[in-house]
């Protein structure tokens, strides 16, 4: 019996009682797929076929390895153990794995570095988790055309260093850039501190190599400056969190290395004053490369964690950075400084020294880890139109007060993206329920202000029940049609993004 049957439709039982492969459903059309229920016999048959087809493949079933790869960094999430953790070395191996998974109806969960905060990489029962630690190379860097191609396991910071050595710059910079992978960034359409000027990951992705749910391999996009041929499949796959296919290669847009950043910190007696400063900076038509905010709770946590010299009496802090060339950077920082002072800043400090500026920047980057030390922390991710950021901050403050829950608020105020973080004692038996109640109130507040329940972390499993309220019934129906067309068996990261 061959590993892939040419026809059929369901898992077939041979006369000897063995589980055999069914036909791989062709891509295209059909009802909304649902994940196949776990079946130990089917899983065992799949692993046996995988060992036969790819005898050198890294396949781990040790409980310690399964446990280490079953969750990301989403708090209060306890996914099941996967069937196995598989580490392919090539796109061809990925295609073989997915093709066999389709034949045996075994779910596939692509996993980056596990730094996600929405449960997108959480394991599913009876499923195989694909890890890309063996596919972490820079395939090419093309300075003449300002593009590069990398494998999905490449770490963001390592890639930045590689292109910087050639005088080039890759903008996407999630707070976890030192540990997160390019593939994971593509899967979630990750953001970061530079989004206000350079946009989220989608704006830097030109082309993808993707293994579809039937094991076939396609390429989307290209390396030309202009390319409008057909549907934009590249943007469809970016942010799909592995629910439509497995990304095996990423081609990205690069930029010439900008000058060293100039950094401004401004401290305020009230969050309202900080919001006024943001409005004044926007009204001045500045486009800084970074415009970040931390509330007083987060300032104090960060200072205790890293000793950055922050004013711990302040209610809010803004960080403004410019990477404009020459005297333009100094002018941008000077205008931003005036805007902050006019809004009531109690203290401002600017740095042109790269080492000092990097230290100040690290204080903001480490906000999450500083808060995480204080208890069981849940960082959220909502966004609103920039003009309504002050209303969102006020709503979060009110919710924290009414829920009698400590927490810090920080985020990318330059593009309207906020990260309210709820903290409860680690031994609180009702922690999950308390946090869920608070975060759902924050989601509702963001939607009431014309915003979204996720600005950069993705829907994953944590927010899928809010997708329809965010996008609308018709839009979700269209998403289901896309999912059914590209994944008719429902094996690609089932249970993620789309609500049941």
What CATH first level of the domain at 138-256 would be assigned? Alpha Beta
Structural class: alpha+beta
Number of strands: 21
Kindly estimate the percentage of residues that lie in beta strands according to DSSP. Answer: 15-25%
Approximately how much helix is present in the residues? 25-40%
Low-confidence parts: 1-17
pLDDT averaged over residues: 92
What is the CATH topology assignment of the domain at 138-256?
Uridine Diphospho-n-acetylenolpyruvylglucosamine Reductase, domain 3
How far apart lie the N and C ends?
Answer: 35 Å
Most strands sheet: 8 strands, antiparallel
Can you name the CATH architecture of the domain at 138-256? 2-Layer Sandwich
* Gyration radius from CA atoms, angstroms: 24 Å
> What is the number of helical segments per DSSP (H or I, 4+ residues)?
16
Shape: globular
What can you tell me about this protein's structure?
There is one protein chain. 34% of the residues lie in helices and 19% in strands. It has helices at residues 40-53, 63-68, 91-104, 156-164, 182-188, 195-198, 233-237, 271-283, 296-306, 327-342, 354-365, 367-372, 389-402, 431-448, 467-471, 473-486, and strands at 12-13, 19-20, 58-60, 84-87, 108-111, 128-131, 138-142, 147-150, 168-169, 205-211, 217-221, 246-253, 255-256, 262-268, 290-295, 316-322, 347-351, 376-379, 382-383, 407-412, 417-424. A hairpin with a 5-residue loop joins β1 and β2. The two termini are 35 Å apart. The relative contact order is 0.13. The model is unreliable at 1-17 (pLDDT under 50).
